[in-house]
Amino acid sequence: MNYANIKYCDIANGVGVRTTLFVSGCRLHCPNCFNEEAWDFDAGEPFTDEVAEKIMSSLDTPYIDGLTILGGEPMEPENQVGLVGFLEAVRERFGDTKSIWLFSGHTWEQLAPGGAWNLGEVTDRLLDTLDVLVDGPFVQDKHDITLRFRGSSNQRLIDVPATLEAPRGEVVWWHDDPVFSTHAME
Ligand code: SF4
Questions:
Q1: CA distance 81 to 14
Q2: Is 5 helix (H, G, I), strand (E, B) or coil?
Q3: How far is CA 44 from CA 1, 52, 150, 173, in A?
Q4: What separation in Å is there between the alpha carbon of 32 and the centre of ligand 1?
Q5: Which of 29, 73, 76 to mutate to test the pocket of ligand 1 (most atoms within 8 A of CB)?
């Protein structure tokens, strides 16, 4: 797996201050994608053990709230395989003290057990590491700059542990601080 970028003090892609890893490769090709240069699976640099340890070290800092995985498309099969062991290691080392968010152009229904984009064990293990999944493709017609942590209104911020425990087919939304419930300028 290659990665296109790492941001070490990111406040745009999840709550608080985060380390954000942008993996390379995406076949979805949403019109007006924000990160077209990361579509190529060979873009950027190899995700080596040294890079993984550098991210781990960045998380081991009191002011860092967690890790966010972006792309490219983290749920492309190659990237699921490349990420799952790393995310499990993050969870093992930090427990629930650091949150893990992941942005995917696929929907929860596609990724969940039994879904068309669920690859079986690797996807299930990966979903088990997540706190929040921001799901669905960017849709220009639904673009809304008042939304926090997502570009278009079809995308959902999903509480992954709660959704995995909910009755099949039920999706539990992640609840933002009420002060951020709207950015409407009125
Ligand atoms: S899934 Fe993400 S990276 Fe891929 S084309 Fe859509 S917006 Fe771009």
A1: 23
A2: strand
A3: 10, 15, 24, 33
A4: 9
A5: 73
Angle at 28 between CA 11 and CA 153, to 5 degrees: 50
Mutate to test the pocket of ligand 1, among 26, 29, 76, 154 (most ligand atoms within 8 A of CB): 26
What is the pLDDT at residue 35?
83
What is the atom index within ligand 1 of the atom nearest the CA of 105? Answer: 1
Q: What pLDDT score was predicted for residue 181?
A: 62
Q: Tell me the two tokens of residue 45.
A: 């640099």
pLDDT along the chain (186 residues), means of 10: 97 96 94 86 97 98 97 96 98 98 97 95 98 95 91 94 95 85 54
**In the numeric block, which tokens belong to residue 147?**
């939304």
**If you search the block for the tokens 């601080």, which residue do you land on?**
177
28 close to ligand 1 (CB < 6 Angstrom): yes
Extract the tokens encoding 155.
């995308």
* Phi, psi (rounded to 5 degrees) for 137: -75, 160
